[in-house]
């Protein structure tokens, strides 16, 4: 009997010990799972926080007023043998709600208003906002501008040319140095006469030309 009791007691102790080891193993697994879950939660919060911050930054850059720069602050025009000036610096393409301090006049690119200026052969008799016109350039338009030093006959000829040319627009621009300027995204040409052969060549090259950041984008449905 004593031997049987001892055997039973030993077996019970063995089962208890086995159950204790099993319980300890479960506790270790649970701790590992808990720690793992906590790490994932923290990582998720960190990633989510970074995403929110970046999203907010993106929204700020897309909607905030830009009154300082249209690009990276560096760049200048280089004049080719055909007389066309090409801007060497980076031209940013963010949408902004305020005014932009363009380094050239008329501007040939840079941050701009989210609404483009209608450029389906539109001729404006009053000055337009640079920020809307630049958006039209982004769509591949050629922008013809002139001062009061341009001859009326030249203005009339250029207006007729623009009216017949989709993806072009025209408006007066008092602060430019040349009587007549033709601008496309990143490119500009100064002329003194509408009969200059360079005018037709500029239209041929840059209306929906290779320089266009958004070829095929609409030139209607914007602002007038």
TrEMBL record:
Keyword Membrane: yes
Keywords, comma-separated and alphabetical: Membrane, Transmembrane, Transmembrane helix
Tagged with keyword Membrane: yes
UniProt-listed InterPro entries: DUF3105 (IPR021454)
Location of region: Disordered: 1-22, 58-79
Superkingdom in the source lineage: Bacteria
Pfam families: DUF3105
Composition bias type Low complexity, residue spans: 1-11
Membrane-spanning intervals of the chain: 32-53
Identification of the protein by name: DUF3105 domain-containing protein
Species, as recorded: Streptomyces guryensis
High-level lineage: Bacteria, Bacillati, Actinomycetota, Actinomycetes, Kitasatosporales
